[in-house]
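Recap from last week: sequence in, structure out.
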Amino acid sequence: MTLPELWVCHLGVVDYLEALGLQERIRGARQRDEIPDVLLTLQHPPVYTRGRRSGPGELPMGEDWYRMQGIEVIQTDRGGKVTYHGPGQLVGYPIVRVDDVVAYVRTLELALVAALAEEGVQGRARPDEGPDYTGVWVQDRKIASIGVHVSRGVTTHGFAVNVDNDLDAFSSVVACGLPDVQMTSIAAELERSDHDHAHCDSPASGLAPAARAPRLACFRKEIAYRFCEAHGRRQRLVSARRLGIDTTPSICGAPTGAQPIKSKSSPDRQPVPA
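Predicted structure tokens:
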């Protein structure tokens, strides 16, 4: 039996508010069944985002102070609390139909754990410890955050995995609403592993952390594969233009000039790249 398709579109660095607009347009097309489920992968310029459960104490320095540091602060409709996005962090926005949002989040956690395992990082979910512990952890260190919004049965927002981004930005806020949370990344965990096994004869242990850390472009492919596998979908890579996204010029914060997504019945529908 042929599995249903899920379109995967790899973007570059996209301004956060621009990405919100893209999600809304794609969600509308998905709600009208003009397109199948979609996964966008991308990076953001530095930004703190506040979820629906965020409290005032999570930005202790005040929003103006963070903006003076060059980090935008944006309120969103996703679940969860304050988190940080920045270059070197892989962000995924699945725009998919769901029946059970809790089961969807649990499946998403398992997909992220599987992708991290391929990089030699043993992550875990903590489903029995309450909503504040949603995401993926390496022991007690958080490596991936999840925040989801569902409208008329279709999701927006999604997940963020720390690959080789600067973790200092997390220390200036109450990340994820947990005062004592320690954030980590794939690069940091590989460096920790190198330190712990400094006297091992493993060939990998002799490599510099930067050499062992995955390129973000490669890791996003693993994430897409594991996401589709976990949700029983057949992956189809599509171009940004196929989704009505004009990525020229592809600079941070530049408007994409996205055009409306064409429906299945459009006479000038273009072939989907394999």
